[in-house]
Amino acid sequence: MEQERDQERSMDISLKDLSKQLEDFAKVRNWEKYHSPRNLLLAMVGEVGELSEIFQWRGEVDKGLPNWEESDKEHLGEELSDVLLYLIRLADICGIDLGDAAAKKILKNSIKYPEPKTKREFI
Question: Where are the membrane-spanning stretches (predicted)?
Fold first, then answer.
């Protein structure tokens, strides 16, 4: 039951909450001087590389990763989190509201790529 509550709490955390936690984490460790946009971008790219390594020799994988070991899924979650956290920190340092920017981008994409009028367009 406690694990379910922890899971629900983690699902409800906002980008702003994560941004504040990352800011506090960096301040306490005196890392702010290293958190330039360039450094954060390069760190994120490195994490994307680590994320890519997980999939490198697996070929195509099924949705939900049904044939993966729990330890592999946990590792994947850690690497996905690393990428997300660097992305949030980079956006924050650049003064970009990532949630707002993402919502605007989804709207822009919905205009650029409208829903198909008929099912034939899917074929």
Answer: none
- Of 33, 48, 30, which Cα lies nearest the Cα of 86? 48
Q: What is the pLDDT of residues 80-108, one digit of tens each?
A: 999 999 999 999 999 999 999 999 999 99
The neighbour count for residue 38, using CB atoms within 10 Å, is 8
- Which range marks the domain in which residue 50 is found? 2-97
Give me the number of domains the chain comprises: 1
* CATH value at residue 10: 1.10.287.1080
Angstrom distance (rounded) from CA 51 to CA 72: 11
Short-list 81, 76, 86, CA closest to 54? 76
| CA–CA distances in Å: residue 18 to residues 12, 34, 38, 69 | 11, 19, 20, 28
Task: Evaluate whether residue 105 is within a structural domain.
Answer: no
122 or 17: which leads in pLDDT? 17
Please name which of 82, 19, 15, 92 lies closest in space to residue 48, comparing C-alpha atoms.
82
